[in-house]
Structures are given as C-alpha cells and as structure tokens.
Amino acid sequence: MECQSTSPSRRNDGIAPPGQKERTLAEHEGAGKLSRSPDSQLADSQPPLGIRLHWSQASLKGICQSPMHCLFCKEESTGSRSQEHIIPESLGNTRHVLPVGLVCDSCNNYFSREVEKPFLESAAITVLRFHQAIPSKRGRVPSVQGVLVPRFPVMCWKEPKDSVLAHVALEEDGLKHLLSYDTGRIIIPAEGVPPSDRVVSRFLGKAGLEALASRLVRYPEGLKYLVTEPQLDPVRDHARRGTLPDWPYHVRRIYDANRTSPDERGSMVQVVHEFDILQTDSSEYYFILAIFGLEFALNLGGPEVDGYLAWLNCHEGASPLYWGRNAG
Ligand SMILES: [Zn+2]
C-alpha cells in the first residue's frame, strides 16, 4: 500500500483549554469508508481547519433555525431543552456541548441512561475516575472497594481533584484488627474490568457523531447534511438503538495515565480527555478519543477499522491526536 505524503504541520490554534483538547487532522487510504463524492455537501460544509469551537447559546439562536431535527432520531427537536455534552461531565467535560436542539430531550435522556452510564459505571472507568479523582456532575468521586490485608473489606473514596489523599472506611472487625497492630496494608485495585465492546462502541458512536456535528455548528447546511445523510444511519442507529451486536474499534495506550505536560501558561496539567476527527484520504471519518492516554478510534462510516490500521502503518504508529497539525 502506498503512503501519501501529507501537508506540513500546523498547530491547532487553541480550540480548547488544557485537559479538554480538540484538534484537526489528515488522510490515508483504507476500508469501511464513508464515501464522499467530489461535490459532497460534507466537503463543502467543512469549516476551515483550526476553527475555534467556542460559542454561546445566545449566538446560536440565529444559526440553528427552526425547525431543528435531532441528530440521532431525526424527529423535530425545536422545543428540546437538554444540553448535550459530547463527552460526559463525569469525565471532566464542561465546555464541549452541542447547541440545544441538536439532540432531542428523548435521545439526551436515553444516552445518559443507556449509553454513558454503563460506560462510566464500568469497573475500569470507576477505578480510573477514583484514582484520578474525577467527580461526577454531582461533585462526587466514585468510591472503590479495597482490602485491608489479610481480608477485611475497605471502602475508599477521595475528594474531587485530590488524586493523592484517599479516605478509607473500615467495618468493626477490620478496625479492631488495625488497632491491634501498629501498621496495616490496604490494597486498592489499580484497574477494573473494562466495559464490554458493545458499550464502548455505542459510547464512541454517540460522542463521535456529536464531535462531527460540533465541527459544523456554524454551518447549517452541514448540520442538515449530518442529520439526513444515510451513510451515517448505521452509526446513529448503533448509538441510539444498539442495532448491531458489535462495532469494532481500535484501542491502545498512547501515554501513561499520570503523564503531565505544560499548558500555555507553563503550568503542569494532565490531559483528562482529548478528541478529534481523522479524515483518511479515502474519506473515512474516524472519531479519535483519548481518555487519560487510552486512545480509542471508531470508524463513523462503518463497522471496521482496517483503514485506521493502514493509517497507523503509514504514519509510524503516531496518534492522530499528536500528528500533523496537532504535532508539537
Ligand atoms: Zn432524538
């Protein structure tokens, strides 16, 4: 397979604050395509690269004219009032939200209950949120069950944003055991069982389509295209209805979960999550999401990842989140 050359790097100019990055990307050949004709509306609707994605609800009133239709169920959503977060608030996202009405109230409630909750409450994500002290939208860091050696159960919890200090609660027999010795050892799980592939792929499909919509938020024709484009029906149905038993995705670790790096002001920060859309040179659109360095890639055009493997092969295994105009 021939690898095409790519355009010179250009930094994305500050779309998001530290820890909530969003960036833009590049191209390669592959399968499972979301095909695009030369006069595709999506191509015409693509905003300039590096466009800032900040907006206010007030500024959107003139953009999202009535009637609006839901990105997922396609029903009229003009009267919907829910605020849809592309990444859940319980993963630290406070600013990547869609304009009210792009996702209807019914779909918003469904995603919260049936797609995001199973992902967030899986053992792996719960343990990750505990260790990194990421609070829920109600401000509570999830607790985890540990063990006071040799066998006494311990409940462990943390205050929001304090990833170092953990509180523990012991039952009476454990407390007696601890008091009868000068010291004790508590074992806390370092990781948990990951969510099922189906839970992950539905979570990625929902967030990915919304990430694509966030790119087009200032382009009403582009948003209309996303709602009506039949090639996107499989991913919207998978996210909203779970129609497919499986939708393969690619996952790998691209940096350690505890890595810190300097932000624009020189303060050392951890990246909680970052995401972007990778467009390959065969017009596949991949949603790329990293949560504490664990990178997921999902093809928004169809249930296969061969094109992403080919892209990685041609780009020395680099992450699209740190390649091309995202580099540096
Ligand atoms: Zn809907």
Report on the structure:
This protein has 328 residues and is of the alpha+beta class. The protein folds into 2 domains: 20-122 and 194-326, no CATH class; 135-187, no CATH class. Helices cover 27% and strands 16% of the residues. The chain is built from 9 helices and 13 strands. It has a 5-stranded mixed β-sheet with strand order 1-11-12-13-8, with helices on both faces. A 4-stranded antiparallel β-sheet has the order 6-5-4-7. A two-stranded antiparallel sheet has the order 2-3. Helix 3 packs across helix 6 and helix 6 packs across helix 8. The longest helix is centred in the middle third of the chain and has 19 residues, at 197-215. It is globular, with a radius of gyration of 21 Å. Bound molecules: zinc ion (ZN). Zinc ion is lined by residues 70, 72-73, 75, 104, 106-107.
Helix content: 25-40%
Structural class: alpha+beta
Query: Low-confidence stretches at least 5 residues in length (pLDDT < 50)?
Result: 5-63
Shape annotation: globular
What is the gist of this entry?
The chain has 328 residues and is α+β, with helices and mostly antiparallel strands.
Structure keywords:
single chain, 328 residues, alpha+beta, 2 domains, 5-stranded mixed sheet, 4-stranded antiparallel sheet, 9 helices, 13 strands, 27% helix, globular, binds zinc ion
Topology:
Blueprint: E1 20-23, H1 41-45, H2 57-60, E2 84-85, E3 97-98, H3 105-120, H4 123-131, E4 144-148, E5 152-157, E6 167-170, H5 172-179, E7 186-187, H6 197-215, H7 220-228, H8 233-241, E8 250-253, E9 261-262, E10 268-269, E11 273-279, E12 285-291, E13 294-299, H9 306-314
Parallel strand pairs: 1-11
Antiparallel strand pairs: 2-3, 4-5, 4-7, 5-6, 8-13, 9-10, 11-12, 12-13
Helix pairs in contact: 3-6, 6-8
